[in-house]
Every structure is written in C-alpha cells, then in structure tokens.
Amino acid sequence: MEKIIEIQEVTKRIKGKTIIDGISFDVYKGEVFGFLGPNGAGKTTTIRMIVGLMGISEGDIKIAGSSIKTDFEKAVRHIGAIVENPEMYKFLSGYDNLLHFARMSKGVTKEKIDEVVELVGLTSRIKDKVKTYSLGMRQRLGLAQCLLHDPDVLILDEPTNGLDPAGIREIRDHIRMLARERNMAVIVSSHLLSEMEMMCDRIGIIQQGKLIDVQLVNDFVNGEEIIFEFEVDASERAKAVIQEALPQLQVQQTEVGILVSAVKEEVPLIVKHLVKEDILLYGIQEKHKTLEDRFLEVTNSKEGVVHA
Ligand SMILES: Nc1ncnc2c1ncn2[C@@H]1O[C@H](COP(=O)(O)OP(=O)(O)OP(=O)(O)O)[C@@H](O)[C@H]1O
Fold this sequence. Notes:
Blueprint: E1 3-14, E2 17-28, E3 32-36, H1 43-50, E4 58-63, E5 66-67, H2 72-76, E6 79-82, H3 94-104, H4 110-119, H5 135-147, E7 153-157, H6 165-182, E8 185-189, H7 193-199, E9 202-207, E10 210-216, H8 217-222, E11 226-232, H9 235-245, E12 250-253, E13 257-262, H10 267-276, E14 281-287, H11 291-301
Parallel strand pairs: 3-8, 3-9, 6-7, 7-8
Antiparallel strand pairs: 1-2, 1-4, 4-5, 9-10, 11-13, 11-14, 12-13
Helix pairs in contact: 4-5, 5-6
This protein binds adenosine-5'-triphosphate.
Adenosine-5'-triphosphate binds near residues 14, 19, 37 and 44.
C-alpha cells in the first residue's frame, strides 16, 4: 500500500496549552481512515493542521512526500476537504455552484464537472437550485466540489452530521466507493461509532491530544477474545462455578445465563465445569463486540497500544 499522508510527531500548542501531543501515523491510498475520540480530544485540530488551516508547533505533516511546512502549496494540492459546512449559493443551481468553484482552481474542465456530478449521483438534479436540495444532496454537492481538482486525499469532518439514515447511507456508500474505485485516501471524523464501524478500514483513537490506538477496525472490534453467552438454568451458581474454576476469565451474569469473555479453545472447559456441577446448559451464543464497546473499553482504561 502506498503512503499518502505521514503525520510525524506532530504537536500543537495554543497559548501555552498542549492541544495535540506528539502524534504520528500514516494514511494509505485506497483506505478510509477514521478519527475517533471524545469531545475536545483534538480531532478537529488535527484535521485543521492536515488541511493547512492551522500551523503546527512541532513535527511535520507530509502529503504525497511534500511537507506542509516547507512546501505548502504542493502539499495541499493533493487534498480535497470539507472541514466546516460547505459554502453553497442556495439560489444558484448545483451546476452553477460547481462552475463557480471550478473557476477558482486552475484547469477544471466542464467534462470534469460532469464527471464529478455523475460520481456523486446528482446528474438528474444538478440544474435545480441548491435551496431545493435535501441535506444529503447538499453534502454530495460538497463532495463533488472537493473532487473537482482530482485530489488524492479526501478529508471530511463529521460528514454525516445532521443527515437522516438514508442520507448517512448515501454518503457512506460514496466514501467507500471513492476509496475502492478511485484509490483515494479518505480521512473522516465522527462521533457516531456504529457509522465509523461500517465506513472505515482503520481507525485512530485520540484522547486528550494523544493518539492512543491505531488499528484495523476488524482487529480493534473483535480482537482475540469473544464474548460467549451460556444459557443456563441457574445463572448465579454458574457464575460462581466459573469464577472459582477459571478465575482468569471475566464472567457476568445476565437474565438467561452468563457472559464469559474467552477464546474459543476455552469453551469446552467452561462447558465441562458447568456440566460437572449439574447446571443445565441450553445453548451457547457468540456475542460480537461493537466498536462502541471497544471504544469505551479503550478510552476508559486510557491505555492503548499503537499498532502501525
Ligand atoms: N483556538 C483555540 N484556542 C484555545 N483552545 C482551543 C482552540 N482550538 C481548540 N482548542 C481546544 O483544544 C481541544 C481540542 O479541540 P478539538 O476541537 O480539536 O477537539 P475535537 O476532538 O474535534 O472535539 P469535538 O468532538 O467536540 O469536536 C479542546 O480542549 C479545545 O477547547
């Protein structure tokens, strides 16, 4: 995979306060990279530094090999971004808006405008005034605007904010398509964890200005341990039996039985202990953790390992 963004030991201080504290990670072409973190963690600040809206106190950011510090113009040329709400002229058509933006960047042809309109699925409505568009259509027009100069990287801060479920799905599908079919790197931030789980290939978790974890979404969510639910006739006793016999495992009582966080190889052992104590076992189910479960585990423990 080809690196397109390199964040190298970046620190940001504002009025003596450290907002971002020495973060480093890379983003590759063709992937959707999600930025997760509690409110005030530093997601927007990091994004603003990547797109060049804010200076860097220490460290460097390279885009397609060019430093944003020493080669700003060349570096940001590779980026298309929606950081604040895209500015649109509501009384103009979508097409006229794009024409307006096209005039501001060099070398954008009318064919290119038609191509991006088609790419974001707005062809049939592009001649209508923007004020008649739904929020989802406006977001897609914003996406089209970002794509006019053929960026390698797309940066979207909270792209699904305020959208209804259908709108969220539309934007998500477009983001994934741009990464897969156009080999673009897409960086998104969102506090909607279920959304990030569906949209991203990798996520970086930022907390109090530090990057505490960078992982593939699948590895992050599932890890090695799985939660198994054992449906039994006597859950309280079952919990006590497993805690006594296998004290290394985490056991939780539920309405129908017990939840045990374990690896698959440990399941026969758990069953053996339950059966030995004459506990009736009606079924075993695998419960997958959600990104939200894992996010809360990691941010609450404040410990994390950076897997590059
Ligand atoms: N210009 C500024 N002056 C002083 N403090 C700032 C400034 N910009 C950001 N901060 C502080 O930096 C921290 C990180 O803010 P940032 O907006 O990057 O967080 P965030 O992760 O995007 O949060 P949210 O999810 O709430 O948008 C916050 O504590 C914020 O108050």
